[in-house]
Amino acid sequence: MANVVKEIITAIKKHNQEDGEIPKEVVKAKPEHRKNLRPKIIISSLLVLALIVLGYFFIPKLSKSSEPIDKSIAVLPFVNLSNDPEQEYFSDGMVDEILDRLFKVGESNSPNFINEI
Fold it and tell me: Is the pLDDT of residue 115 over 90?
């Protein structure tokens, strides 16, 4: 079948050339080749996944320092909200007691210490 079509096109070309006409270009219908994008998508997805995994494991190691961080806490003084100035010792005593207990937290390793506070 393809040979018949080819012979017909060749005969038409020869006929047109004999008449003195300018030969027309025969446009061959090429089937569209769809580029196979599936392997490219898979490879790029694996590459992105590998970069995410590497970033997850190596970026936290870069930001961590080997020196331990000193912990600190601030205890602000309490304000005496009563109208009685003789009760000032109570708010000062609360601050002192909290500071004393916090100093003991660093010294104590026993789990029962929290229950004492």
Answer: no
